[in-house]
Amino acid sequence: MKIFSSKKRFFVITGFLAAFLAVLLISTLVLYSRAKTRLDNELGERLRAIATTLALAVGDLPPAVDTDRSIDESQLTMLHHARNDNLLSNIVVLAPDGRTIVDLADFSRPGEMNPFIDLDYSAVTLARAGLPAYTALYRSGDVFMKSAYAPVLSDSGDVAAIVGVEAGAGFFEELQELSGLIITVDIIAILAVIVLAFFFYRQTLSLDKAQTAVIQSENLATMGRMVAGIAHEIRNPLSIIKTSAERLSRIYNPEDETFSYISEEVDQLDRILTGYLNFAGDKKIEFTDVSLNKTIRRCLMILDGMIDDKRIRIIQKVPEEDVVVPADDKRVQQAFLNILINSCNAVDHAGTIKISIETTDKLALTRFKDNGNGIPEKDLKEVIKPFFTTKKHGSGLGLSIVARILEEHGGDLDIQSTPGDGTEVKISLPRRRHT
């Protein structure tokens, strides 16, 4: 018994893929976020260290009330060198009240309030309290920037000034490279998982087919042993019943249809039993050169009575020359007979059955098309399954036997039907020996 149907398995694999993609996406976002946070903190710590070093180098500065005085040339030169050496966009020296002492980028003049004091309020406030600090990332045009501030302490320990440094967040280039690498790895992983899932699904379908074949083989073996054991016991009574009915008919009333009914029903039981024996049996195929033209003619002769009774019109379109295939003559005849019997049962009185043979280099294609009632779409996939039947007295083995015979010969069975418009059965057999 199958644990999962193909449909359930498809949903299981789809669910696994969805879960995998969700985990992969979340992991990617977490990795990117952690990398960004780490690089952001590293830049902040670097800028804070630079600001602290410069604050120590600047030393005592003029008091805040005298911010129009500039620092000496040696200090200014040191600040320019520090800006270039550390790839800083700006260095400012501010009085504790926020007025500019030095602004290397000339955003403000000495004595003016620095325009970035309000933007960097938290970091500046900490620097005023004597603690170096750095800001969060902020955008300046198309560039992300970050600043750090450190206090310049007087000999008495008071904050005499504040040194601020600013730099662009160049690590975004690294993040871009990292994100590109992550995306590439993610795509490769997703494709790999999809390919593996596809092959896994295909493999499970193959296992399903193998499992189905094993189960069917076991069922057939069991049925074969059972049928073989009781066939003799059933056929002997059937033979006696039929012989007795024919004898009573001759003695009492040969015209009484009751006796003929008995014989007909006995024959029907015998055909059903034969069908079970043939389906469950495992006879060796005896390949010979079989003419499909002659096989069709024999089948029509066998069914001549049924065809005449229903006044069925047979239309044949077969080549004049024999179409020969390597096959077991009796089994191919049985397959054709089963299909023709189904067609005869399906059509109404004065119906039509068309038979044609077409050939290619590799195949011989035989078509049986009737204008009967047709097969409902929901039953089309079921009709070749053993014991499936829509007839009151059918065994459900006719098309199953046909399918099995064709499988043994390396052929194919195709059934197309439209309710109310008839059914077409196509049988293809290889023109060269199937191995």
What does this structure look like?
The protein folds into 2 domains: 6-169, Beta-Lactamase, CATH 3.30.450.20; 284-430, 2-Layer Sandwich (Heat Shock Protein 90), CATH 3.30.565.10. It contains 10 helices and 13 strands. It has helices at residues 6-58, 73-85, 121-128, 171-251, 257-280, 292-302, 304-309, 329-346, 377-380, 398-409; strands at 90-94, 100-103, 133-134, 138-140, 143-153, 159-168, 288-291, 313-317, 324-327, 352-359, 363-370, 412-418, 422-430. Strands 1, 2, 3, 4, 5 and 6 form a 6-stranded antiparallel β-sheet that branches. It is rod-shaped, with a radius of gyration of 47 Å. It starts with 5 loop residues before the first helix and ends in a 5-residue tail after the last strand. Mean pLDDT is 80; it is low at 63-69.
In short:
The protein is α+β, with helices and mostly antiparallel strands and 435 residues long. It has 2 domains: 6-169, PAS domain (Beta-Lactamase), CATH 3.30.450; 284-430, Heat Shock Protein 90 (2-Layer Sandwich), CATH 3.30.565.10.
Shape: rod-shaped
Number of helices: 10
State the name of the first-level CATH class of the largest domain: Alpha Beta
CATH architecture of the largest domain: 2-Layer Sandwich
In total, the number of domains comes to: 2
Please give the largest β-sheet.
6 strands, antiparallel
Order of helices and strands: HHEEHEEEEHHEHHEEHEEHHEE
Number of strands: 13
Between the first and last Cα atoms, what is the distance in angstroms? 31 Å
Mean pLDDT: 80
What level of helicity do the residues show?
Answer: 40-55%
- CATH fold-level topology of the largest domain: Beta-Lactamase
Strand content: 15-25%
* CATH homologous superfamily classification of the largest domain: PAS domain
The low-confidence parts are 63-69
Computed CA radius of gyration, to the nearest angstrom: 47 Å
Classify the secondary structure makeup into a structural class: alpha+beta
